[in-house]
Design goal:
There is one protein chain. This protein has ten helices and ten strands. The chain is α+β, with helices and mostly antiparallel strands. A six-stranded antiparallel sheet has the order 3-2-1-6-5-4, with helices on both faces. A four-stranded antiparallel sheet has the order 8-9-7-10, with helices on both faces. The N and C termini lie far apart (67 Å).
Length: 311
C-alpha cells in the first residue's frame, strides 16, 4: 500500500479547510442532495463528499457508507488531494498503490474509485468520490459529469465561505469571527495562553463619507482592514463587525498590545490621503470574569466607547 503524500501547500490547505467550519458539522441537505444524485447517476453503492483533515478523511456527506471517517493514510481521496487532480482507479486489486489497502481487502471492499477534487481558494480540501465493489471504467462523458458534480459541491462550499466573510474587506464578518474566535478562545484557555480582545471604531468616519463620498468611505474600510492584517499575527482573528467597527482576538496579554497598536498608527499615517484615518480602541484581557467570548467582546466594546468619549 502507498499512503498519500501531503501537498507542498499543506499548511495553507488546512487553514483554508478549517476556516470553513465544515469539519465535524451536522449533515446538510444541500450536500446530501449532490451525493444522492451522484449515486443514482453513476449507479454506484457509495458516494461521498470527503474532506481531508491532517490525519483523517471526514465525510461531510455519505451515501451507502456507515463510517463517518477513516484514517488519511489509507484514503484514496488523499491521493487526489495530494495531486490536485481527478483520480480514477478502475480495479484496486490491479493497482499496486491500493491492492493491499485495508479499505480494499476489508470493508467496504473498494474495487473501483473515482474522485474529483473540491477546491476552496485554490486549495484542494477534499473530493466528491464514487466507490463500487466491482471493477468499472468511466468514459469521457462520465468523467465530465463527475467534474460537474464536484463543481456543484464547490459552489456550496463557496457559499459557506461567503457567509462568514465580509464582502467589502475580505476579512471575517461577525458570524465568521464568532465561529473562529470561539475556537481560539476555548483552545487558548485550555492550553493556558492569555487572549486579548481589541475593539476598534473609526473616528470621523461619517465626516469622510459626507465630504468625500461613500466610495471613499469604502476605501477607508478596506485600508483599515489591510492595516490590521499587516499589523497583527496570522494566528490572530481579525474581523469587521459591521459599519466602521472592527475586532481582533489576539494571543497575548493586554500589555503586549502597545507595539502592534503603534505599528497600526504608523501604517495608517503612511497612507497618502486628504484626511487622517484615526480610531479608538478598547482593549480587554481575558480574566475569570469572561466565561464566554461574548463577555470579552462586550467588555472591549465598553472600553472602546469610553475611550472614544474621552477623545
Amino acid at each position: 500500500m502507498k499512503p498519500p503524500q501531503k501537498p507542498a501547500s499543506e499548511t495553507q490547505r488546512l487553514l483554508q479547510l478549517r476556516s470553513l467550519d465544515l469539519l465535524d458539522s451536522q449533515a446538510e441537505e444541500r450536500f446530501d442532495r449532490i451525493t444522492r444524485l451522484a449515486r443514482r447517476l453513476f449507479d454506484v453503492p457509495i458516494a461521498l463528499i470527503s474532506l481531508i483533515d491532517e490525519d483523517r478523511q471526514w465525510f461531510k456527506s455519505r451515501q451507502g457508507l456507515d463510517a463517518p471517517q477513516t484514517p488519511r493514510e489509507v484514503s484514496f481521496c488523499g491521493h487526489a488531494v495530494a495531486d490536485d487532480a481527478v483520480l480514477i482507479v478502475d480495479d484496486a486489486h490491479a493497482d499496486a498503490r491500493f491492492a493491499d489497502n485495508p479499505l480494499v481487502t476489508g470493508d467496504p471492499s473498494v474495487r473501483f474509485y473515482a474522485g474529483s477534487p473540491i477546491r476552496s481558494e485554490r486549495q484542494a480540501i477534499g473530493t466528491l468520490c464514487l466507490i463500487d465493489r466491482k471493477p468499472r471504467h468511466l468514459d469521457d462523458d462520465e468523467r465530465a459529469l463527475l467534474d460537474d458534480l464536484a463543481a456543484m459541491v464547490e459552489n456550496e462550499v463557496r457559499s459557506t465561505r461567503e457567509s462568514t466573510t465580509d464582502a467589502l474587506t475580505g476579512i471575517s464578518n461577525r458570524r465568521g469571527f464568532d465561529q473562529l474566535a470561539s475556537k481560539v478562545f476555548a483552545i487558548s484557555h485550555r492550553v493556558g495562553v492569555t487572549s486579548t480582545l481589541l475593539s476598534f471604531d473609526l473616528d470621523g468616519f461619517k465626516a469622510i463619507n459626507d465630504t468625500h463620498g461613500h466610495a471613499e468611505g469604502d476605501r477607508v474600510l478596506v485600508d483599515f482592514a489591510h492595516a490590521l492584517i499587516r499589523t497583527f499575527r496570522d494566528a490572530d482573528v481579525i474581523a469587521r463587525f459591521g459599519g466602521d467597527e472592527f475586532g481582533v482576538l489576539a494571543c497575548g496579554t493586554a500589555d503586549t498590545m502597545s507595539a502592534p497598536l503603534d505599528r497600526l498608527h504608523a501604517h495608517l499615517a503612511w497612507l497618502e490621503r486628504p484626511y487622517k484615518i484615526e480610531f479608538s480602541a478598547g482593549i480587554t484581557e481575558r480574566t475569570a470574569e469572561h466565561a464566554q467570548l461574548s463577555d470579552l467582546v462586550a467588555a472591549a466594546d465598553r472600553a472602546m466607547y469610553e475611550r472614544k468619549k474621552r477623545r
